Amino acid sequence: MTQERTRGPVPPTGGAGRGVVDGAFRVLHALPETGVPRQVARLAELTGLPRPTVHRLLGQLRQAGAVDLVDGRWVLAADLLGLARRVEPLGGLRESAAPVIRGLRAQTGAAVSLVVPDRAAFVALEMVPGQEALPIDARPGAAMPTTTAAGIVLDDGRTPSPRRRGFGAAVDDQDVLEGLTCYATTVALPGGGRAALQIATPAARPADRFAAAVHHAARALERRAAALVR
């Protein structure tokens, strides 16, 4: 989420250009979950895109250096994987967290992100869109302003905020974007590192009503993270 709060309705975020970008990120997100047999068909099933569109996007992503075709299988390109690892605080964390994040999304319908520090800012190490369209950049690698709930959680209490809650949590009740609410809590990582698990929902379904589910998922992430260093 890269915008500050606006007055009045959020402007529409549609358009052909955004549709192409959204489709490309759907393909990138689904690619690791596919194998060689019927790979394009499986991508079409996972993304909800027609097969010809998947074919076209794969070609465009290959030209951009985001994917490669290796032994008949489409895979994420090394440059893209390297970019993700640059902000990964624990090797394998993103892959290990993916099932928990997908489960939380299925349970709440919210956009779910695992946010980590990146130098002086914050970035979504993993992110899946919610069931409703939201005025946010719902993709892995998206920058997160310090004013989001996740940013407040990761600020470690240095900045007092009335939006802090107990058990290492924070809320965003349309404080960053009109019509958007968020709830985030801390995820403790081995070695003293930290991440934040955040959900985002429309104001009609306040994110804090799913607080228990977010905390439960955060504890599951901590167990998975601990297993990575055993």
CATH topology of the largest domain: Beta-Lactamase
- Portion of residues within helices: 25-40%
- H-E string: HHHEEHHEEEHEEEEH
CATH top level label of the largest domain: Alpha Beta
CATH 4th-level superfamily of the largest domain: GAF domain
Strand order of the largest sheet: 5-4-3-9-8-7-6
Which CATH architecture of the largest domain is right?
A: 2-Layer Sandwich
The number of strands is 9
Total count of domains: 2
Global Rg = 18 Å
Which class of secondary structure composition applies to the elements?
A: alpha+beta
| Average pLDDT metric | 83
Distance between the termini: 34 Å
Q: Number of DSSP helices?
A: 7
GO biological process, one term: negative regulation of DNA-templated transcription
Keywords: DNA-binding, Transcription, Transcription regulation
Domain HTH iclR-type: 18-78
Organism: Umezawaea tangerina
Characterization of the model:
There is one protein chain. The chain has 230 residues and is α+β, with helices and mostly antiparallel strands. It has 2 domains: 16-83, Arc Repressor Mutant, subunit A (Orthogonal Bundle), CATH 1.10.10.10; 89-227, Beta-Lactamase, CATH 3.30.450. Helix content is 37%, strand content 22%. It contains 7 helices and 9 strands; from the N terminus they run αααββααβββαββββα. The strands form 2 sheets. A 7-stranded antiparallel sheet has the order 5-4-3-9-8-7-6. The chain has a two-stranded antiparallel sheet with strand order 1-2. A hairpin with a 2-residue loop joins β1 (67-70) and β2. α1 packs across α3 (51-63) and α5 (93-108) packs antiparallel against α7. The longest helix is centred in the C-terminal third of the chain and has 17 residues, at 211-227. Mean pLDDT is 83; it is low at 1-15. GO terms for molecular function: DNA binding; DNA-binding transcription factor activity. Keywords: DNA-binding, Transcription, Transcription regulation. InterPro entries: GAF-like_dom_sf (IPR029016), HTH_MetabolicPath_Reg (IPR050707), Tscrpt_reg_IclR_N (IPR005471), WH-like_DNA-bd_sf (IPR036388), WH_DNA-bd_sf (IPR036390).
